Amino acid sequence: MFAMRTFLLSLALICALGVGAQPLTPSIIPQPLKTTQRQGVFTIAPTAHITYSEGLHDSADYLAEYLPLPTEPYRALREGDVVLMLNANLAHEEYTLDVSRNCIIMQGGSTAAIHNAIESLLQLLPAEVYAKQMALPQSVMQLRVEDKPHYAYRGFMLDVTRTWVSVDELKHFIEALAHHKINHLHLHLSDDEGWRIEILSHPELTAIGAYRGGDSPVMPRYGRWSEKYGGYYTQAQMRDIVAFAARRNIVIIPEIDLPGHSHNIARVKPDILCNYTPSLTSSAGYDTRGVFCVAKEDNYALLEDIFRELADIFPSPYIHIGGDEVSTSQWQHCPDCKALFEREGMTGYGELQSHFMMRVAAILEGLGKHSAVWNEAAEDGRMALSTRVHCWEGMKQARAILSKGYPTIIEAGEYFYFDMRQGPREGGHDWAGVFDARKTYFFLAERAQLEQSAGRVEGVEAAFFSEAYLSNRHQPYNFLYYQTYPRICALSEVAWSARGEWEEFYSRLVAHYQRMDNMGLSFRIFPPEVSYSEGVLTATNDDSTAIYYTTLGSDEEHLYTEPILTPKPYLYAFRSRTELGLSPEAGVPERFATSRPKVHITTSLPVSDKAPLSRAESYSAAARTTRAARSGDWVEYRFERAVVGTRRMEFHTGTPRMPRFILREGYVEVSSDGEHFTRVGDLHDGGIVLEGYAKPLKALRVVCTADANGASYCLIQPPVILPEM
Ligand code: TNX
């Protein structure tokens, strides 16, 4: 029955699209405000021209990158041409796109609007247009589009610190954003793990701070533990990126994350830290402090140097100065901060953060820029109302900020943090939930509610923090794109379109798969459904993408063409694929079942009372130590009864799937009798995976061979045991 359903769905889709032909109805993401279809098609001939009115020379060149036609200034309307024209009656981002029998005319209120029109036109052409491989002549359905965005601010935040993103990679990412009418790119340029923009007056910020590991004073805290890792943008490169983005209607907003998240700059310029000697016992001798001292005048002079250069590189009227997750404990140890606290008659240490942020905001105002901040920085309402606030923590915090009257960007983790995992066995964070593009799309319901209350919502922004990207760099696909597409398609829709229905959006999204393939995005496909009954294993999907399967113990993929007769369904894993798109693995539940044999865990490390070893022993959560591991420290897992016959066993330290707080290096020994141990391998990213381990396992011991891990504690995970079936 399921196979029949797939067949009928594929048939329906083939009929809807026509074999090798263009869709019969326009399928544009984000959905335009109004589309009127006409009869017939217009044919773009190879002899046609792109003509443009004054000021649109760059727009015409941009279009010609995709539509291979010569460009020339507009003189008169000529049959067959593709025309770009400014129209003062249209608003800033508002456009019309007219495909008639004789020509194509795009009009817009500004170059931004013309960009929007061009992106819509590209989606009326075959998907190969995105690979810049379109042959002419080409027919386009006749229609008229009248369109403008719901939100003026449609943003994406990319963290290039935890994982370095090269100039070429960044440009590719920007191109794809532009195709989805995203018009702001917020670049997270500094964080604990890296400094990514050249500052001429302080070259050491990148010369030293752009790298971690190896001989850098900055210890790695994510992935690539033993090598020197990093990179940075020179100012010349960044100016080029800014211009590249501007040509695509994207404003780049730089962020320097202050006063917390500053561990990196603190290793390069320890003088920014508070005036006290830290106790280093919990971190194996490594200073893990990373918060600017509020009381040091030199800090504000340094920041003025930095922001003066940034203000010159970035035309954006806003610069983001961070303000998230600041711990006040370092200030509480600092005599100078305490004196300032007394002098100003403050009542809570959080006020020191406002003091700091307001001083930095004043520096920016002096440079002609407004500040943007994360929501915590504006919570006490003391920042000026010109401050733009990015509300990341959740809708509750967003409502609180809106009620204070700040221009607000909704960036709530539960809808827009695309570093969150999309399924239970996929990579990424999960603090704001596990969700896919569907959840992002349902922000539409939230948007409707927001509009009933007062407040200045300027728009929405999605984010990709890149901790897990680094540890997924070895994948045969690009994890950045897997995490962000099609969630960015949903973002684009909720940021732009007036209204919508999931089913209707989903049909456009499936038609968009071919475009994403041609854009070079290894996007995520929804997993196929797998069912098993009476010895027959069936996989179905509703997007007519091909389904492949592998069997346990082999990586070889086979095309799934018909239900599989098998008494052992758990041997099979299924994935949907397009050329670049892929789904997560799907299978019967037994394939992923784990067992929880009784285990006793001991360690040479001191363990926190709040997160004791019993948490890991009961398989409920990680245990936390109260210091980082040193060479010679060990963790031992001893099973009440020796474990036998497993498919796979995993023993990890650190955050799950996000190697941090790990035992940085070490080896692993196993024992069948609990007394005699033999070495089976080394730790990788703080853990070891034993596949098809044949002997009984009574005990396993991890022995650490390195000091410190860049933090002041380690995590000990429950073991993961997948039994043989
Ligand atoms: C919170 S979002 C952070 C980041 C992390 C992110 C992971 C924000 C302002 N702070 O430092 O990378 O969560 O999702």
What is the gist of this entry?
The protein is of the alpha/beta class and about 725 residues long. Helix 8 crosses helix 11 (about 350-365). Ligand TNX binds near residues 325, 392, 429 and 467.
Based on the model shown, name its key terms.
725 residues, alpha/beta, 34 strands, 26% helix, globular, disordered N terminus, binds ligand TNX
Largest sheet: 8 strands, parallel, barrel
Shape estimate: globular
Q: Give the low-pLDDT segments.
A: 1-21
Q: Mean pLDDT, nearest integer?
A: 95
Structure, explained:
The protein has 725 residues and is of the alpha/beta class. The protein is 26% helix and 25% strand. The chain has an eight-stranded parallel barrel with strand order 8-9-13-14-15-16-17-18, surrounded by four helices. Strand 21 and strand 22 (558-559) form a beta hairpin. The longest helix has 18 residues, at 502-519. The structure holds ligand TNX. Ligand TNX is lined by residues 324-325, 374, 392, 417, 419, 429, 465, 467.
